[in-house]
């Protein structure tokens, strides 16, 4: 099997684990090369802790979670938590595009236009990553958006106002990887993950599937059970 390359572009330490940790663990275990790009340090996400110290805590948690998930490479862009929409957009796009051009991922995952929780940083990275993807002009690469589902509700604690359904959807069965997902979630201790017990005990409580909508190429396609499935694959049973 040809090893695939997956690039994940998100806003905060923990965005990789809570909503989509099962998918990342699954593809890493299958031999895919995963690159995680985290735009901000999450330095305003630890109450009563100074930003510089909070950034250290959150980066340490991020690297622990990435190791648990099997992510090969973690890049921090170092922007300010809560202010990504005030970062110079040309610079962010240029950095993201350069990473795409050098890594040539088979697929890129980022937030969709709902940002799952609607957090302004999630909306900003959605926009910037999409624009960078289009500018990178990778002819065979796909762009996926994290779609709202039971998994994102559990992980992020909010119900997205956008419902599933429009456009092609990849439905990833993460059943065997839920224990790993719990371990990764628990690495983000400063964020009080919604799973506190032994990972093997918590895993059955997590949703079995994570959902992604296919944003590029812009084609009509049936639902897929794999991010790399041929487009227009047979509908899921
Ligand atoms: Zn976030």
Largest sheet: 7 strands, mixed
Provide the β-strand percentage band: 15-25%
Written as H for each helix and E for each strand, in order along the chain, the element string is EHEHEHEHHEHEHHE
Assembly status: single chain
Distance between the termini: 25 Å
The CATH class is identified as: Alpha Beta
> What is the number of helices?
8
Q: What is the tally of beta strands?
A: 7
Shape category: globular
Could you tell me the radius of gyration in angstroms?
17 Å
CATH architecture: 3-Layer(aba) Sandwich
Give unreliable regions as ranges. none
Mean pLDDT: 93
Name the CATH superfamily classification.
LmbE-like
Heteromolecules bound = zinc ion
Describe what is shown at a glance:
This protein is α/β, with parallel strands linked by helices and 237 residues long. It has eight helices and seven strands, in the order βαβαβαβααβαβααβ.
How would you describe this structure in keywords?
alpha/beta, Rossmann fold, 7-stranded mixed sheet, globular, binds zinc ion
Written account of the structure:
It contains eight helices and seven strands; from the N terminus they run E-H-E-H-E-H-E-H-H-E-H-E-H-H-E. It starts with a strand and ends in a 21-residue tail after the last strand. The mean pLDDT is 93. It is α/β, with parallel strands linked by helices. It has helices at 21-29, 51-69, 89-103, 115-118, 120-136, 150-156, 178-187, 199-202; strands at residues 5-10, 33-40, 73-79, 107-111, 142-146, 169-173, 209-216. The chain has a seven-stranded mixed β-sheet with strand order 3-2-1-4-5-7-6, with helices on both faces. It has one domain (5-216): Rossmann fold (3-Layer(aba) Sandwich).
């Amino acid at each position: 099997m040809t090893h695939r390359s997956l690039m994940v572009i998100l806003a905060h330490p923990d965005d990789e684990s809570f909503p989509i940790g099962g998918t990342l663990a699954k593809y890493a275990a299958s031999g895919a090369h995963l690159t995680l790009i985290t735009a901000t340090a999450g330095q305003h996400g630890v109450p009563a802790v100074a930003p510089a110290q909070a950034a250290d805590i959150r980066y340490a948690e991020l690297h622990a979670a990435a190791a648990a998930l099997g992510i090969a490479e973690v890049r921090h862009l170092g922007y300010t938590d809560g202010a990504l929409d005030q970062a110079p957009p040309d610079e962010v796009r240029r950095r993201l595009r350069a990473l795409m051009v050098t890594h040539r991922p088979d697929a890129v995952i980022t937030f969709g236009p709902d940002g799952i929780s609607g957090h302004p940083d999630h909306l900003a990275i959605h926009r910037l990553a999409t624009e960078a993807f289009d500018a990178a002009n990778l002819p065979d690469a796909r762009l996926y958006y994290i779609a709202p589902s039971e998994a994102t509700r559990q992980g992020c604690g909010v119900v997205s106002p956008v419902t599933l359904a429009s456009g092609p959807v990849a439905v990833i069965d993460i059943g065997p990887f839920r224990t790993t997902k719990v371990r990764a979630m628990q690495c983000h201790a400063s964020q009080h993950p919604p799973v506190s017990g032994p990972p093997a005990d918590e895993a059955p409580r997590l949703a079995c599937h994570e959902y992604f909508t296919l944003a590029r190429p812009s084609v009509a396609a049936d639902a897929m059970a794999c991010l790399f499935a041929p487009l227009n694959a047979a509908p899921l049973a």
